[in-house]
Design goal:
Layout (H helix, E strand, L loop, with lengths): L2 E6 L1 H4 L4 H16 L5 E9 L4 H8 L5 E8 H10 L9 E3 L18 E5 L4 H4 L6 H17 L2 E4 L2 H10 L6 E3 L14 H8 L5 E5 L8 H11 L5 E4 L6 H10 L7 E3 L5 H9 L1 E6 L8 H8 L4 E4 L2 H7 L4 E3 L6 H9 L3 H15 L4 H14 L1
Length: 374
């Protein structure tokens, strides 16, 4: 008898978030690559264009079957929020997000399982930064998960502790970290890509928005206090968010001429930016999975991160942690990272060593084990 793991891959046919698209694709590929004997991987997708099969086969070769639902993604999200299975319930279901048919099922007698994933807690901790509809959907789906999910996957122990305060999940929370794309690297055409993006080499790199939870102001203050003249590049800026980010930098005492703000970039452009970065600064204290920080570690860029529960767990000894209770700690850490060529080289080695601790193959093996344990 063949056991099928049915993975919800809505993001691959109607993606709404680049990191969730990547996570869904990479996890599905790794599940196929690590499939145990007697098992197979299937996909569950919402109604989409006529070439859904071709899209999925290109993104995730080796899928055994595809369940195409009748509802498009937006309508399907609403239906699942209300508790309608919409033809997707039954069997072993794994969702790389909260998007899943969270309905009553019998794991003991029918061997049905439903597992969902929560990557960050912004809808609960920073709801003012998101659309109301998105906040309402995530909160409703976590409530449904508390009632019907057999397990809830989060990427860090910090997130596991916090989500346990938000919902009655008992012992169902499991920690399975994500990773950068398996082929993530600095591309061979990095110089041309940086030139096309209009960003200089030898920069200080950050990711985030002007939102208070990203704490870019702290990073700008530390950079200004270090009195370096290195260019500063901020990526992942939201659409229309550049003026607010520039204002934060100016208020911190950093000349606007040194700042380069860019929006959401693809993986190869992000790799090109990292190839020209001397240090990556992660100032956020959110309960989130730091995708860009993981990419910096993977390619061996020295990392300076604010000392938070998430960063302490992810970085460990792969970079420098700055305790914000000391107002000068971040400035000192930036100074230490950029203090000499030897410091840059040492931190680069530590970063690369830590970066390879995260892989989608490892995540997939833990997913298979999770469903076997259930």
């Amino acid at each position: 008898m063949t056991v099928s793991l049915r993975v919800v891959l809505d993001q691959l046919v109607a993606g709404v978030d680049g990191d969730l698209v990547t996570a869904s694709r990479e996890l599905a590929r790794a599940l196929v690559a690590t499939v145990p004997s007697g098992c197979e991987v299937e996909a569950i997708v919402p109604a989409a264009g006529p070439d859904v099969a071709g899209t999925l086969e290109s993104a995730v070769p080796g899928l055994a079957d595809i369940t195409r639902l009748r509802l498009p993604r937006r309508e399907l999200a609403a239906a699942w929020q209300l508790g309608a299975a919409s033809g997707a319930a039954g069997g072993l279901i794994h969702a790389p997000t909260l998007m899943a048919p969270l309905v009553k099922h019998d794991r003991i007698h029918d061997h049905d399982q439903t597992v969902v994933t929560v990557w960050d807690l912004d809808p609960w901790e920073h709801p003012d930064e998101l659309p109301r509809t998105a906040v309402a959907w995530h909160r409703a789906m976590l409530k449904r998960a508390a009632k019907h999910a057999d397990a809830i996957v989060v990427p860090t122990h910090a997130a596991a502790e916090r989500i346990g305060e938000l919902a009655s999940l008992g012992g169902r929370v499991r920690v399975i970290p994500g990773a950068p794309p398996e082929d993530f690297r600095v591309p061979s055409d990095e110089v041309g890509r940086r030139r096309e993006l209009g960003v200089p080499e030898g920069c200080i790199l950050l990711s985030g928005s002007a939102a208070a939870s990203d704490r870019l102001a702290d990073a700008f203050t530390a950079i200004a206090a270090h009195r370096t003249d290195l260019p500063v590049v901020v990526t992942d800026a939201p659409e229309g968010g550049e003026p607010a980010i520039v204002q934060l930098a100016v208020d911190a005492g950093m000349p606007e001429s040194r700042l380069h703000v860019r929006g959401v970039l693809d993986a190869w452009d992000r790799g090109a930016l990292l190839g020209g970065a001397l240090v990556f600064i992660a100032p956020s204290t959110r309960t989130y999975f730091p995708w860009r920080l993981l990419e910096a570690l993977r390619v061996g860029v020295p990392v300076v991160a604010v000392d938070s529960d998430v960063h302490r767990e992810v970085v460990v000894d792969g970079g420098l942690l700055a305790d914000l209770r000391d107002p000068d700690a971040l400035t000192r850490a930036v100074g230490e990272a950029l203090g000499s060529t030897a410091a840059v080289e040492r931190l680069a080695v530590l970063a690369a060593d830590r970066g390879w601790a995260f892989s989608w193959a490892g995540a997939a093996e833990r997913v298979w084990q999770l469903h076997a344990d259930l």
